[in-house]
Design goal:
Blueprint lengths: L1 E3 L73 E4 L1 H10 L4 E7 L6 H12 L5 E3 L1 H4 L9 E5 L7 H4 L5 E7 L4 H13 L4 E5 L8 H7 L7 E5 L2 H10 L3 E5 L15 E7 L7 H6 L2 E3 L12 H16 L4
């Protein structure tokens, strides 16, 4: 996960997902809407990480027990757990696989045999370890874990080019299951990148990669110390930034979305920070029949992305 941007202040005020607040400031012309409705709701990359030389492993080599932060596992790189997530990593970036661990009795499982066969096809061996050791990486490991030396990078030069572009900005998502679900949806709806704050937000943990079911291999996640600078950078290259908040005047399907769209999703239970609301070009609310609660962050993101795909004319 890439980090960029100047230092930011901590403890910024947040507005709850159902609170009312000031509308965002923007001097830019607002894209046209197709109507109004009621309802409520919620810089350049530093470059690709250098891939370490692939470490050829033998299944007889035991798991190291020193130097790691999680049960002896090497803390360097990015750990991926879970069958679907690991299979996609093998398919997309086999050159970046540095370590593979599978459960001791992997040969008794058809899915594990298939995974080991795929690894063999690209010349990568395995190490075995107990299920208890793998649990140090995450409870949903399903008997397999990979260590990768790279991750997707956000191509800012491509974002600046004309044409349809879609970005997500997450204002403090802390639940790894939410980030994982959002990444899975982002992958399938054509999102180019997910921007997160450097502080008080979950990053690409093993559990996030597992829940993403392969999405973490396709969608870049980039952390920033200052949302102000990255919002301005997006605006400078033509993005219109929509924040999901109850105080919004329009719903997603009331909008005539431009070619370049960035959706901003607030944190679990607290919504968007007031400072983030003010950086948005427009606040948008999701329809719901009760104002006593709000959508899960991953569901809110999926609703906004689905409408964007519909307007972009992407395949159903």
């Amino acid at each position: 996960m890439k980090r960029r941007g100047p230092p930011s202040s901590r403890g910024q005020e947040r507005r709850g997902s159902h609170g009312r607040g000031s509308q965002p400031n923007s001097g830019r012309r607002r894209p046209a809407t197709s109507g109004s409705g009621s309802g409520s709701g919620v810089g350049p990359s530093h470059g690709r990480a250098t891939s370490a030389e692939k470490e050829r492993r033998d299944s007889s080599r035991p798991l190291a027990t020193k130097g790691g932060k999680a049960g002896g596992f090497n803390p360097k790189g990015r750990w991926v757990i879970g069958m679907h997530a690991c299979m996609e990593a093998i398919r997309v970036r086999p050159h970046a696989i540095a370590d593979v661990f599978v459960r001791v009795d992997w040969s008794s499982s058809e899915s594990h045999r298939e995974l080991v066969d795929r690894l063999a096809d690209v010349g990568i061996g395995i190490q075995t370890c107990s299920m208890e050791q793998l649990a140090h990486l995450g409870s949903g490991h399903q008997g397999v874990a990979l260590r990768l030396t790279e991750e997707p990078n956000l191509d800012w030069a491509a974002l600046a080019k004309p044409g349809q572009q879609l970005i997500l900005i997450l204002d403090g998502i802390e639940d790894p299951h939410n980030l994982g679900s959002i990444l899975r949806t982002a992958w399938l709806t054509g999102v180019k990148g997910v921007l997160i704050p450097e502080d008080r937000a979950v990053g690409l943990t093993p559990t996030v990669c597992k829940i993403a079911s392969g999405g973490a291999e396709h969608v870049a996640v980039e952390s920033h110390t200052s949302f102000g600078s990255v919002f301005q950078q997006l605006k400078d290259i033509g993005f219109w930034i929509y924040g999901l908040a109850e105080s919004g005047k329009s719903r997603p399907y009331d909008l005539k979305l431009p070619e370049k769209v960035a959706w901003v999703i607030g944190s679990e239970g607290r919504g968007l920070r007031i400072s983030t609301e003010r950086l948005c070009d427009e606040l948008v609310r999701l329809p719901q029949v009760s104002s006593g609660s709000s959508y899960n962050a991953s569901i809110a993101a999926a609703m906004a992305l689905a409408e964007t795909c519909r307007q972009f004319g992407k395949p159903e």
